[in-house]
Design a protein that fits this description.
Elements lengths: L2 H16 L1 H11 L6 H13 L25 H17 L13 E5 L4 H11 L3 H11 L5 H11 L4 H15 L3 H5 L9 E5 L8 H19 L8 H14 L35 H12 L6 E4 L13 E8 L2 E7 L3 E8 L5 E6 L10 E7 L2 E6 L3 E8 L8 E2 L11 E2 L11 E7 L7 E6 L7 E6 L12 E2 L3 H10 L11 E13 L6 E11 L4 E8 L10 E7 L12 E7 L5 E7 L5 E6 L3 E4 L2 E5 L6 E6 L5 E3 L4
Parallel strand pairs: 3-7, 15-17
Antiparallel strand pairs: 1-2, 4-5, 5-6, 6-7, 8-9, 9-12, 10-11, 10-13, 13-14, 14-15, 15-16, 17-18, 18-19, 19-20, 21-22, 22-25, 23-24, 23-26, 26-27
Helix pairs in contact: 2-3, 2-4, 2-6, 4-7, 6-7, 6-8, 7-8, 10-11
Length: 633
């Protein structure tokens, strides 16, 4: 190694040591939220520790000079390497290689308040380059041009779009974004610990090994906050916490009507209900089976949901008999857990991730299920419930009886096969003590947590709509009647909510009527979204299905951070002539067609004669000079 290269490596090493906490915080912010906080913490530390250059003289991309004093020495090089490694984790995540190993304990940053929770939820909907832009802009105090330069050097696909998403987040979250990012909620160097499976390990030496491992990680600059005392005292406290998690007397029980006096209206505000909330033996069995399920216990979990044992006393939501089955529902702050104990069959456990739930997504859960039917357990702030069929939007809603313990009558389940003759949904009305006249729709997609349906109306008078509304009005129901059956694709995908955004409407050639273009976005509890672009021609019947003309996964498109979209399809007029149709969202400057068909048009819609099978590609011209291609089916 020549002296200059050796000096570069030494400066980089000094930068890592000096700025280790801020580098780990940046890596933690960029890593995918779907990893879970424990794995993100360990991976963030592992990436920073791997950020040291190899010293083999490989040429580095030159970055612009930064205004911050830390730009001197090797810090910009190390920061670039950290961003590169973190971005690569979203593209090709590595499981546990090259990260610190902690056995028997879970590590996670200290929990913040409601503002930190809201920001974390907003960040989870961004892509890795967009989160990197947020971190470089706020944590590193870089200007927008420098952020784009670093992202470009790190290999991000569209640095400009990532920076624009960061600006949009800043407008949404307000001027306190930088302060919130600097809080303990996003600090992977000041941590809390919880045991995982201490109860399963019978030998004291194995427990001592777990404590020794986490202390070794602390010595490598983790700075884990576990309190004072000797190693034996720490081990004893960890074991005590694990035992307390299985003590039915320590279950959290929210007081009745607490939901009316809190700003956090979600599953933490549910009071325990059911006729058997005082049955200690039932609750003890539920906790024991959760901690150490036998081989005959049937376990199911929604996508992205952990089935790990409880690491602290959970909250009791329900205990009682449902259709001949003893049911206990618990909430540990991140997951719903449903324990079912049939009379003549093994017990079962069902898990669903519900972190960052709110008034609507925390408004109900599926308490029981059978052949073609299910029951909801509704939130204590829900005062009224009805059902309706999305495929008959003009039919009035039917009353849904709710028992005093919050359990509804049986509701038909949506179809799972090829036929789709109906799509039942529940409509809930919230108490005015929480919010004035709030109705919302929920549908069952096979998970413990039902899915919230919303609607974003078309732009009015040239101005885009600000935010989705509840899908309970006539226009929303009419729109959902066409696309309800497409929800079958999302069954079992851990979906949190689905929004239908009418992003454009287009008059069809040859007096063919008016078509509607919809971007349907399904947000998952893990964060990434699924998008389908739908074309709705004039329908003869209210429930005529849509045509899906584009798809995308793990994208911010059609969210408040990705309000630009374009779609295209082929359409046949009554004369038999085929047309290529395309439509973009508000703000699109023009549309261009390339391939076997070549055409350009100003504005956000296009219709041009084209053979049915002629290959063509549509792209939209954006206000900033960029191009946006239509999604492919």
């Amino acid at each position: 190694m020549d002296e200059r290269t050796r000096a570069d490596v030494e400066r980089a090493e000094a930068a890592i040591v000096e700025h280790y906490p801020r580098l780990v915080r940046l890596a933690y912010l960029v890593l995918p939220p779907s990893m879970g906080r424990h794995r993100r913490v360990l991976t963030a530390h592992g990436l920073v520790q791997r950020a040291l250059p190899t010293g083999r003289g490989r040429p580095q991309r030159v970055l612009p000079g930064q205004r911050a004093p830390q730009a001197e020495g090797g810090y910009p090089l190390v920061r670039l390497r950290v961003v590169q490694l973190a971005l690569a984790q979203e593209r090709q995540p590595r499981r546990w290689s090259a990260v610190p190993f902690v056995w028997g304990l879970r590590l996670f940053p200290r929990a913040g308040g409601a503002d930190e929770l809201a920001l974390d939820q907003a960040l989870s909907k961004l892509t890795a380059p967009e989160r990197a832009a947020v971190g470089l802009w706020h944590l590193e105090d870089m200007d927008e041009d420098d952020v784009v330069a670093v992202l470009d050097a790190a290999g991000a696909e569209d640095p400009g779009a990532a920076q624009r998403a960061a600006v949009a987040l800043d407008r949404e979250s307000g001027p306190a974004t930088a302060t919130l990012l600097d809080s303990g909620e996003f600090d992977p160097c000041t941590l809390q610990t919880r045991p995982t499976d201490l109860l399963r390990r019978r030998q004291l030496t194995r427990s001592a090994m777990a404590v020794a491992v986490v202390l070794a990680v602390s010595g490598a600059a983790l700075g884990v906050v576990v309190g004072g005392g000797s190693d034996g005292g720490r081990r004893g406290r960890a074991t005590t916490v694990a035992q307390q998690a299985l003590d039915p007397d320590r279950l959290l029980r929210t007081p009745n009507d607490a939901w009316a006096d809190t700003s956090r209206v979600d599953f933490t505000a549910w009071s325990p209900r059911g006729s058997d909330t005082g049955d200690r033996e039932l609750l003890r069995r539920a906790l024991r089976v959760w901690a150490e399920p036998g081989h005959d216990v049937h376990i199911t979990a929604s996508a992205g949901t952990s089935t790990r044992p409880p690491d602290q006393p959970p909250r009791l939501l329900y205990a009682g008999m449902i259709d001949g089955v003893m049911v206990v529902v618990l909430h540990d702050g991140e997951r719903l857990v449903r324990y079912a104990e049939p009379a003549n069959a093994p017990a079962s456990l069902e898990f669903a991730r519900v972190d960052n739930a709110d008034l609507t997504t925390g408004g109900a859960l599926v308490i029981g299920r059978g052949d073609g039917w299910m029951r909801f357990l509704i939130a204590p702030w829900v005062t009224d419930a009805t059902t309706r069929d999305l495929l008959t939007p003009k039919a009035p809603a039917k009353p849904l009886r709710v028992a005093p313990d919050g359990v509804t009558d049986r509701v038909p389940t949506p179809p799972t096969g090829a036929s789709c003759g109906q799509w039942p949904v529940a409509q809930f009305h919230s108490s005015e003590r929480v919010v004035e006249r709030h109705n919302f729709l929920m549908t069952d997609l096979g998970d413990l947590a039902p899915v919230h349906l919303t609607y974003l109306p078309p732009p009015a008078a040239g101005h885009p709509a600000d935010a989705p509304v509840e899908a309970t009005g006539a226009p929303a129901l009419q729109n959902w009647a066409h696309s309800a059956c497409s929800l079958r694709e999302l069954r079992g995908a851990g979906v949190r909510s689905v929004d239908n955004w009418v992003y454009a409407q287009q008059p069809l050639p040859e007096h063919g009527g008016r078509a509607t273009w919809v971007c349907s976005r399904a947000d998952t509890w893990q964060g990434p979204g699924r998008v389908t672009v739908q074309f709705q021609p004039p329908a003869a019947r209210p429930a005529d299905p849509v045509r899906i003309v584009g798809r995308a996964q793990d994208t911010a498109a059609c969210s408040r951070y990705g309000r630009q979209v374009v779609g295209d399809t082929r359409w046949r007029a009554k004369s038999g002539t085929w047309y290529l149709l395309a439509a973009g969202s508000h703000g699109i400057q023009g549309l261009d067609v390339t391939g076997a068909v070549r055409h350009g048009a100003a504005g956000a819609t296009l219709a041009v004669r084209a053979p049915q099978d002629a290959p063509a590609r549509v792209a939209a011209r954006l206000p900033d000079g960029g191009m946006l291609h239509a999604f492919r089916p």
